[in-house]
Amino acid sequence: MAATTPIAESAEPQGFGNGSLELAVSMVNPMPLSGAGNISTRRAYWQTAFRDPELASWLANFAPTHLYVGSEFCEHLLPGLRTWEKAITHAQAVQCRVSLLTPIASPQLIRNLGRLLPSIPDGSEVIVNDWGTAHFVHERFPALHLIAGRLLCRMMKDPRLGQAAQAAAFRFDPRPLRAMFARLGIRRMEIDAPLSTDAGTFSTLPLPTSVHVPFACVAKGRMCRIGSSSIRGPERFAVGRKCRKECLKVSAQLERPSFRDTRDIYQIGNSIISRHSAAMSGVVKSAVEQGFISRIVVPGEAL
Asked: DSSP readout, 256-302?
C-alpha cells in the first residue's frame, strides 16, 4: 500500500484558500524525505504509494512540511528516543517540523511518554487520540502543542453499512467537544473525510483542521489480527501478546462472501481502514481550495 523510496523535497507548498496547504507525512520508522527535488519525482512516489494518478498529481504540488512519527493505532509503535532523534535529522534536512503521533493510552504508554516527552522541544506538536494522554501532556508538558487526533474526533465511517445509513450522522459533530478542546488547550483537530460529504462539510469545524488521505480509519481495537494469525491455542487473538510489529510488514484486504463492497477495506494490525472514493477525494480538494482544510496527512509507509 505504500512505497519505500525517498520523498523528494521541492519549492514552497502551493497556496490555497487563506494560506499554504501543509503536508504531513506519517511514519513509524522515519526515513529521509530528501530526493531529486522536482514535481515529477514526487508524482512518481505518490503514484507508487497509492496507485491513483489523479491523487498523485495533486499531492506532487506540495512539499512535506511535517513529519509525523509514531502511530495512532498501537501503543507498541511509540518511538523511542533514538527513533525520535533520527526523525529530527531527516526532517531538518528538508526544513520539516516533527510531530509525535500517540495512540489510545495504556499504563505502559503513559510511562513511556513520561520518558520521551522531556526530550521533545517546546512548541512541538503531539497528536493525541486519548483524553487521558491529552490531560497528561497538558498537565506535565504545557509547552507542547496538543492536536486532537482522528480517533478522538469520531464519526461513523464504515462504508459497509450501506448508502441508506450514510446521512448527516456520518459527519463530525464538534458541539460535544468544544469545551474539552478549550480546557486542554487543543490547537488543531484531525479527522477522516466523512463518508457523506458536500461543499459545507468542513465549513463549521471549530479549529484548524487536518484531514487524512487517502485512507480512513473504520474501527480500532487492541487485538492484533495480523500478529495473532500464526498463533495457536488460547492466546490466539488475545490482547497482551508480545508484539513483533507484524503490521509494518503485512496487511490484508477484507472481503465479504457474496457481497461486493463499494470501497477497498483493509486490516492493518489492530485496525480496519478503508480507501476514499473518488467523490470523497474531490470534496477534500475542494475544501482545501476554499481554505477549510489547512493540512493533509498521508502515510509515508505501510500503516
From this structure: BTTB--SS-EEEETTEEEEEPPHHHHHHHHHHHHTTS--EEEEESS-
Helix 107-116 × helix 131-140 angle, to 10°: 30
pLDDT tens sequence across 260-291: 666 777 777 777 878 888 888 888 998 999 99
Q: For residue 190, tell me if it sits in a domain.
A: yes
CATH of residue 197's domain is 3.20.20
Tally of CB atoms within 10 A around 104: 22
pTM: 0.82
The span from the CA of 121 to the CA of 124, in Å, is: 6
3-state secondary structure of 160: helix
The total of structural domains in the chain comes to 1
Mean pLDDT of the chain: 80
Q: Is residue 288 part of a domain?
A: yes
Residue 137's φ and ψ, nearest 5 degrees, are -65, -40
The pLDDT tens digits of the residues spanning 16-30 come to 333 589 999 999 999
Residue 155: give the domain boundaries.
Answer: 15-216+275-299
